[in-house]
């Protein structure tokens, strides 16, 4: 279908443009990245590329292994040549909301370890400002003991609505790969995402936000007509 085709087009173009031999590559999480790993595995086979891949989640680790790619980690490769990941929404300044899949903590760590961070997404993520298309707010990973106090402080300090993310196929809240909980914060009005991100991160109990500010080198958006738009 159109959305899947557009994800694939963006992912393939990003891998073709940004992966070279002997690269260490951060592999993101979600559904769009699946196409990027598919293309990466194809290029490794066809071109005999030697690359190592560092995952950003249990899902990404499974993707790397099942595609026969060489698994590495940040201990072995603390600096990566490139990281490729999806996003829930991208604004005109390349500020991202990530964490729809609850993996933003490892995703942000891997993205920050990379010399070049690339986003791949379908046209539904291509916005002028955050909140235009993504309505589920900013995902925030918290330590379980602090979820209620963080939610309360967040609402008091920044307004909006902060809710604990409940699981669908498990009783109780979503538990992240790091053993944390996720709070989704639907904001009312935000002027400066850099400042907002810092304010949220400073609340004791917050592990990581799904706001990626000033981290993205380039975003590839698959369009409904099969073309790919790039924003740098
Ligand atoms: O949860 C995440 O951060 C994912 O990368 C998400 O933002 C993108 O997921 P998708 O590729 O399935 O839309």
TrEMBL record:
EC numbers, comma separated: 5.3.1.6
Keywords: Isomerase
SUPFAM superfamilies: D-ribose-5-phosphate isomerase (RpiA), lid domain, NagB/RpiA/CoA transferase-like
Keyword hit for Isomerase: yes
Involved pathway(s): Carbohydrate degradation; pentose phosphate pathway; D-ribose 5-phosphate from D-ribulose 5-phosphate (non-oxidative stage): step 1/1
Top-level class of the enzyme under EC nomenclature: isomerase
Similarity comment text for this entry: Belongs to the ribose 5-phosphate isomerase family.
Entry protein name: ribose-5-phosphate isomerase
Name of encoding gene: LOC106804748
């Amino acid at each position: 279908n159109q959305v899947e085709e557009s994800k694939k087009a963006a992912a393939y173009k990003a891998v073709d443009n940004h992966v070279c031999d002997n690269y260490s590559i951060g592999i993101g999480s979600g559904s769009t990245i699946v196409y990027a790993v598919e293309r990466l595995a194809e290029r490794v086979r066809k071109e005999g590329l030697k690359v190592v891949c560092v995952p950003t989640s249990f899902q990404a680790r499974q993707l790397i292994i099942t595609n026969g790619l060489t698994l590495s980690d940040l201990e072995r490769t603390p600096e990566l040549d490139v990281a490729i990941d999806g996003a829930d929404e991208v604004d005109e300044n390349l500020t991202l909301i990530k964490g729809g899949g609850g993996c933003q903590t490892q995703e942000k760590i891997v993205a920050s370890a990379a010399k070049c961070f690339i986003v791949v997404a379908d046209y539904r993520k291509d916005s002028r400002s955050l909140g235009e298309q993504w309505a589920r707010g900013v995902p925030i990973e918290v330590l379980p003991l602090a979820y209620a106090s963080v939610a309360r402080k967040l609402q008091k300090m920044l307004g909006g609505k902060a809710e604990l993310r409940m699981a669908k196929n498990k009783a109780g809240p979503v538990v992240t790969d790091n053993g944390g909980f996720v709070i989704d914060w639907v904001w009312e009005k935000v002027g400066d995402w850099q400042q907002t991100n810092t304010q949220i991160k400073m609340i004791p109990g917050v592990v990581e936000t799904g706001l990626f500010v000033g981290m993205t080198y380039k975003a590839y958006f698959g369009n409904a007509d099969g073309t790919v738009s790039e924003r740098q």
